[in-house]
Fold this sequence. Notes:
Radius of gyration: 36 Å
Distance between the termini: 78 Å
CATH architecture of the largest domain: Orthogonal Bundle
Number of domains: 6
Helix content: 40-55%
Shape: flat
CATH superfamily of the largest domain: Hypothetical protein af1432
Structural class: alpha+beta
CATH topology of the largest domain: Hypothetical protein af1432
Strand content: 15-25%
Number of helices: 26
Strand order of the largest sheet: 11-12-13-17-15-16-14
Amino acid sequence: MERIEELFPRYDESGKLIIKAAYDIAAETLSTHQRSNGDPFIEHPLAVARIACDEIGLSAECIAAVFLHEATRFFPETAIPKGMFGQDVLTMVDGLNKISTINPKDTRLEAENYKKLIVSYSKDPRVTVLKIADRLEVMRSLDMFPKLSRERKVLETMMLYIPLAHQLGLYNIKSEMEDIYFRHADPEQYRAITNKLKSTERDRQKLMTQFIEPLKQKLSDEGISYKLKVRTKTALSIYKKMQKQKVSFEGVFDVFAIRFIIDCEDDRETEHALCWKVFSYVTEEYESDTKRLRDWISNPKPNGYESLHITVKNREGSYLEVQIRTKRMDDMAESGLASHWSYKGIRHEATLDKWLTAVRRALENPLGSEGDPMASYYEDELLEMPTKEVFVFTPSGELRKLPAGATVLDFAFDIHSNLGIKCTGGKINGKAVPIKEKLKTGDIVEIMSGKNQKPSQDWLNFVVTNKARTKIRQKMSEAEFQKAADGKEILSRRLKNWKMELDDENMAALLKKYQFKTINAFYAAIGDGAFDVAEVKTFIQESSNQQQEVPVQETKNRTGVQESKGNDDILVIDAKNVRGIDYRMARCCNPVFGDDVFGFVTRTEGIKIHRMSCPNAARLLEMYPYRIQKVKWSETPSSGNFQTGLRVTAALEPSVINEIMDIVNSFRASIRMFNVSENERYSTYEITMKIAVPSNLELDKVISMIRNLRNVIKINRM
């Protein structure tokens, strides 16, 4: 107990008892376990517990969870006496154990997903904070690990744990991990920058002294108690600025900041008033750059960060960054959201709930947004954040992200389309399951397949991913088209044997009589035997008998223009032959079957068919009325193939490209050209594509569904 008293004096007696109980279990369990350098392994959880206690300010329950985690991680059979620790402690232990099983294959490619996986394992958000403390201790002890292990830990820290620490506002921890990372990743640059920082340290102190001198009297007269601190950027941060701005060390003018830390009551109105008063004194004395003003007092960052930042120019013309905040705000800035918990007192249960809410929201919403209530950690209730994703692994350890509710079949399609088509079931954590079994985060999934497996309509009732739905429909459509091709061939042979013809007019009447929505559906019905082809022969014979002789009032000339009694000639466009004898689809507007169109008689290229909404339409109709040809589409349902262009502007989100392509492929449409470019100015994708469709009906459906995508800003026909 003496050692616990010595190491953790800030906790009350009950807290120390919980810590001692957990420590004793860990010490006994790990008694023979050693670290890479030969030290007793118990020194690792002790160091992590000290970080969680002294540098973050977590509760005794969190400290106990650290010790129990290390004991049960290596020895899962370790007995934990019932009733000795609360459910909160056991939940944290379970989360830490799950995170310890994560073994990233390629952190650089899947960093965001691995971060989300860590958070998803943290049912209690304090688990993530404890894991960051654990990683800090590992980084401090980095030199003891073998070279390959050290390189892997350095990369994991940069890609996973430093961003998480930043999200939570654990800036001291983040800065230290960055420093260690940079020292190992690029020792030459690290030494060069740190040596420059050491050689200029005296200059920075001198600048701070000169800066405060004109302000001392004003602040004293107002009774404002404060202290000044020089906050120097990390070597890595400076190096990144040098790279981004393409300047030397001397060219980075905000290497350090002068920080006012105001000592005042913990009252928000008082805090804000004093910060703005100091701000006014600084800007009265020094020329300020208002473009670089950052007000995070009125609108705190999502991770709780509060401060006023302003850049000013001193008497010598040097630019200085000035940060103004209270002691509470500084505690928050240095230690993150956890400092609020420590600051208010560890036994205040309501404060814990508020803090948990803030941490959870900062983790779930790393970017935040204006007006997001997440920006405030003073919520009154702990909200359960909805789980929108599950993270599962292949047998080889590859991480896959899927939406919540995803099944074994969704996973199979995510791996490969052909695997999804042939999927017959799977194994989850070694146990055989059906294809509709839902997945949970952490599952290891293996897919079973069969050569004779075919997709069915039933699959669409339980899959949740767009990829699975699209590929299932596509495969079923392919089967339908094959049936249609077979049916068309059967009908063609029969008509030839019967010495009969089925013209467009009779085909339209036939489809109407037997209630076929499309000609392909009619052919498919013949192909799979659902429709007796002999019915066609009967229909043609009956139509022929009913046909009466009528005077021919109009004939077609070779151009396809209908000659009537008046001058109102109309060109009928054959939808099956979009390149008629004397007409062509205009490339400037790419008409498709069903569009409102008109013809324009050119001098050398026959008649060009334009959409009425064509950009050139107004000019042609006004300037050349005598060359305008009235046009209409044949009333026969289209089986043609019309090419048209679409232009899409979408947010810079990689998934939107696949979503657009999936939509096009889910209809009777095919992509003939697809081009993507990034608009850096507006942070958008500019997508142009050419697709082939049978009619404007299909085209309108495609446009409508693309327009409804969350990340699509606008879509237009070209």
